[in-house]
Amino acid sequence: MERCYKHPMATNIGIDLISFHIPSYVLDLSVLADIRGVDPNKFVIGIGQERMAIVPPDQDIVTLAANAALPILERAGRDNIELLLFATESGIDQSKAASLFCHELLGLPASCRCLEVKEACYAATASLRMAAAMVAARPGSRALVLAADIARYDLASPGEPTQGAGAVAMLVSANPRVMALDPESGFYAEDIMDFWRPNYREEALVDGQYSTRMYLSTLIEAWNRYKAASGRGLADHAHFCFHLPFTKIAYKSFERLCRAEGAPRPEPEELERLIAPALRYNRQTGNTYTACVFEALCSLMDDPPAPLDGQRVGMFSYGSGCMAEFFSGVIQPGHREHLFTDAHRGQLEDRVPVTYRQYEDIFNYGVPTDGADHIFAPYRGGPFRLAGIKDHKRRYEPR
């Protein structure tokens, strides 16, 4: 049997169910390329992105996360969920945790700890680890981890084509049906300034080349620690899921791991088998920050090149600033019966394309910060929406 998180009363601990949600609007990057006067291949081939999710005014991280979580709760119920962690770097309040808004919308029990977790794109991995630790201590309990973000950069900036939005929800339990987490991991922290967003800005600031260098160097640091703790090598993993600010970095990451291990670069067909299945969703949504690596996991499981039952998947999570972790998990036998594959595919296929003018209008509108009361018209979207702002309070409602 594969080695996983263990507890005297629980064999495995990990992801029992996982679901993701994206906005119902999308911009094709060929449209953006035409407006910016660049070759579309700069986006499609150069960074590996094809489309970006567009968030309408009546959606935010709370509604995205709640929409991602609802299918899980409808299938698995709400009993014994004692922890709700919301990972984001797109926080909506300097005091109140976004998880409490979701707690109300989702009808979760009152005996539930609700927190918001921040460390750039790494926060969801930290939340998953904390949730697993709680379940290990209380095997009869369950935890819900939410990761939701809206990636925004200045118009016409180098980061603009990597924008995106989305949310992932994960139910963490003993004896999980989808992925059992391995106990070993490797992590690395360093105080750097490669990407940041001061409180007075809606758009992030990034030193792109420096951030990529740090991503790749911390990958090796985290991998070496993971390898020392687990005794595993590259060949012990059937697939890899990487944090995806843009999908091209996944190939660079695996090549860097091969060099660090003194292993030959795989043939193109083998490289595609190892890496490409985890990239398909992100190509269509853009950067989802905290949700990225778990969106990649959904992409891999929804359309694997071969059955994944009993296979180990390597996961690398990076958060600028910076924090990195390499960890792994074993896909559980029969997991396909517990996925939301059709719902995920349906969301991607049913999105409404927007024109460049519509994209720019939505970008400039954002959520008003003038302190006045606002009512938001309904747009296409999931079960929950942001109805408006009154007396400086956000008002959410079922659609």
Topology:
Blueprint: E1 13-21, E2 25-28, H1 29-36, H2 41-44, E3 51-54, H3 61-76, E4 81-87, H4 98-106, E5 113-117, H5 123-137, E6 142-151, E7 164-174, E8 179-189, E9 195-196, E10 205-206, H6 208-230, E11 239-242, H7 248-261, H8 268-275, H9 280-285, H10 292-302, E12 312-319, E13 323-331, H11 341-349, E14 352-353, H12 356-365, E15 374-375, E16 384-390, E17 393-398
Parallel strand pairs: 2-14, 4-5, 4-6, 11-12
Antiparallel strand pairs: 1-7, 1-8, 2-3, 6-7, 8-13, 9-10, 12-13, 15-16, 16-17
Helix pairs in contact: 3-4, 6-7
Summarize the model shown.
This protein has 399 residues and is of the alpha+beta class. It is 33% helix and 26% strand. The strands form 4 sheets. It has a 9-stranded mixed beta sheet with strand order 5-4-6-7-1-8-13-12-11, with helices on both faces. It has a 3-stranded mixed beta sheet with strand order 3-2-14.
The Cα radius of gyration reads 20 Å
Order of neighbouring strands in the sheet with most strands:
5-4-6-7-1-8-13-12-11
Secondary-structure element order, N to C: EEHHEHEHEHEEEEEHEHHHHEEHEHEEE
In CATH, what is the homologous superfamily? Thiolase/Chalcone synthase
Number of domains: 1
Overall geometry comes to globular
Outline the low-pLDDT stretches.
1-10
Oligomeric composition of the shown chains: single chain
Could you explain how this protein is built, in words?
- With 399 residues, this protein is of the alpha+beta class.
- The protein has one domain (13-398): Peroxisomal Thiolase, Chain A, domain 1.
- The chain has twelve helices and 17 strands.
- The protein has helices spanning 29-36, 41-44, 61-76, 98-106, 123-137, 208-230, 248-261, 268-275, 280-285, 292-302, 341-349, 356-365; strands at 13-21, 25-28, 51-54, 81-87, 113-117, 142-151, 164-174, 179-189, 195-196, 205-206, 239-242, 312-319, 323-331, 352-353, 374-375, 384-390, 393-398.
- The strands form four sheets. The chain has a nine-stranded mixed β-sheet with strand order 5-4-6-7-1-8-13-12-11, with helices on both faces. A three-stranded mixed β-sheet has the order 3-2-14. A three-stranded antiparallel β-sheet has the order 15-16-17, with helices on one face.
- The longest helix has 23 residues, at 208-230.
- The protein is globular and about 60 Å long.
